[in-house]
Amino acid sequence: AITLGAGEDSISNDFGLIMPVPVVGTIAGTIYFDDENDNGYTGDMGISGQVVYLMNASGVVITTTTDTNGSYLFTGLASDVYRVWYDNSSSYIPDSDYAGTISGITDGSVSGLQMIVAITLGAGEDSISNDFGLIAALTPPTPTPITPPILPTLP
């Protein structure tokens, strides 16, 4: 409290306001080569260089690329509903997708192959393990050319 007498002034009584820090979250996962043993990503090899897309409920799309371990991460996300998918221009075939978890509870759902939808982030929440499993495309073997036999020349 500031008590002033008659004719007195009080100066330099400054008040600072602190802007609230936005509480933001993340969405993360891995794109990996699925070894077909049905254990999700556990022990499987990540696929680097895959382009991953994230879209919010307003239709704003951002991208990132998987790192050397096949992991991707979107940071600084506001509370919203998101969907995540990847560009499968590689020689891999989509095989299994897994919706991630927020605080240990599954959130979101798989929509066909290559997309996880309805990831609902609250303030400061992190959705992890939004994973995509791929298998190698079957490439037909290259045929071995047959060399015709050399026939003797006739006189």
Describe the fold and architecture.
The mean pLDDT is 85. A hairpin with a 2-residue loop joins β8 and β9. It is built from no helices and 13 strands. It is mainly β and 155 residues long.
Structural key phrases:
single chain; 155 residues; mainly beta; 42% strand
Q: Beta-sheet strand percentage?
A: 35-45%
Percent of residues in helices comes to under 10%
Radius of gyration: 28 Å
- Quaternary structure state of the chains depicted: single chain
Q: What is the ordering of alpha helices and beta strands?
A: EEEEEEEEEEEEE
- Give average pLDDT, whole number: 85
Number of helices: 0
Topology:
Blueprint: E1 25-33, E2 45-46, E3 51-56, E4 61-65, E5 71-77, E6 80-86, E7 92-98, E8 101-102, E9 105-106, E10 109-110, E11 115-121, E12 126-128, E13 131-136
Parallel strand pairs: 1-12, 1-13
Antiparallel strand pairs: 1-2, 1-5, 3-4, 3-6, 6-11, 7-13, 8-9, 8-12, 10-11
State the gist of this model.
0% of the residues lie in helices and 42% in strands. The protein is built from no helices and 13 strands.
